[in-house]
C-alpha cells in the first residue's frame, strides 16, 4: 500500500511549460486608378424678345402775364 501511494505522488508531479510566440505581419497595398471619359454635348438655345413701347406726351402751356414781348 505504501508503494501505491508513492506511485500516486509521482504521478501528481506535473511540470508544464507553455511558450506562445505569435508574429503577425499585415501588408496592405491599395492602388486605385480611375479613368473617366465623359463626352458632353450641350445645346443651349436662348430666345430673347424685347418689346419696348415708349409714349411721351409733353404738353407745355406758357402764359406770360404783364410782360412786354414786342421787339423794340
Secondary-structure topology with pairs:
Layout: H1 2-12
Protein name: ATPase
InterPro entries: Hexapep_transf_CS (IPR018357)
GO molecular function: transferase activity
Structure description:
This protein starts with a helix and ends in a 60-residue tail after the last helix. 0% of the residues are buried. The model has no long low-confidence stretch (mean pLDDT 69). The chain has one helix at residues 2-12. With 72 residues, it is mainly α. It has 1 helix and no strands.
Task: Summarize this structure as a short list of keywords or feature phrases.
single chain; 72 residues; mainly alpha; transferase activity; Hexapep_transf_CS; ATPase
SSE class: mainly alpha
Q: Rg from C-alpha positions?
A: 57 Å
The count of helical stretches stands at 1
Tell me the helix content: 10-25%
Q: How much strand content do the residues show?
A: under 5%
- Name the shape in a single word: rod-shaped
Major sheet size, sense and barrel closure: none
Mean pLDDT: 69
Distance between the termini: 172 Å
Low-confidence stretches: none
Q: Give the number of DSSP strands.
A: 0
Order of helices and strands: H
Amino acid at each position: 500500500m505504501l508503494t501505491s501511494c508513492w506511485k500516486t505522488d509521482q504521478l501528481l508531479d506535473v511540470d508544464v511549460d507553455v511558450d506562445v510566440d505569435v508574429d503577425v505581419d499585415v501588408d496592405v497595398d491599395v492602388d486605385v486608378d480611375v479613368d473617366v471619359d465623359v463626352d458632353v454635348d450641350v445645346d443651349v438655345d436662348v430666345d430673347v424678345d424685347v418689346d419696348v413701347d415708349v409714349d411721351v406726351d409733353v404738353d407745355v402751356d406758357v402764359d406770360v402775364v404783364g410782360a412786354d414781348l414786342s421787339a423794340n
